[in-house]
Amino acid sequence: MKNAVIAMALCACLAGCAGAAGTPGTSETGSLSATGDQRGGKIPNGISDVPAANRAATAHCAQYNKRAMLTQMQTEKEGGLVAFECH
């Protein structure tokens, strides 16, 4: 299971989809929204749609002229949280 999560994270990071910037501190892409600041943030239930979570993180970091890197992915059983950093 851990290998599957790592594989999904790698695929999401390699996708590198760009999104539109929104209000500073929050970014919504589809049904997922990211909250955080210029250093990174979190996407609740992001594991349910990893490509959409990657787009939300990318859109969030783009507000600060930075790129997103997914750093943590919880299983659905653990809550499905996806965390990211902006670099």
Biggest β-sheet strands, sense, barrel: 5 strands, antiparallel
Main sheet: strand order:
1-2-3-5-4
Gap from first CA to last CA: 28 Å
% residues in beta strands = 25-35%
Radius of gyration: 11 Å
- Helical element count? 2
Arithmetic mean of pLDDT: 80
Give a description of the structure.
- With 87 residues, the chain is an alpha+beta fold.
- Helix content is 31%, strand content 29%.
- It is built from two helices and five strands; from the N terminus they run αβββαββ.
- A five-stranded antiparallel β-sheet has the order 1-2-3-5-4.
- A hairpin with a 2-residue loop joins strand 1 (26-29) and strand 2.
- The longest helix is centred in the first third of the chain and has 14 residues, at 2-15.
- Mean pLDDT is 80; it is low at 10-22.
SSE inventory with pairings:
Blueprint: H1 2-15, E1 26-29, E2 32-37, E3 40-43, H2 50-62, E4 68-73, E5 82-86
Antiparallel strand pairs: 1-2, 2-3, 3-5, 4-5
Key structural traits:
alpha+beta; five-stranded antiparallel beta sheet; 29% strand; 2 helices; 87 residues
Quick overview:
The chain is an alpha+beta fold and 87 residues long. It has one domain (2-86).
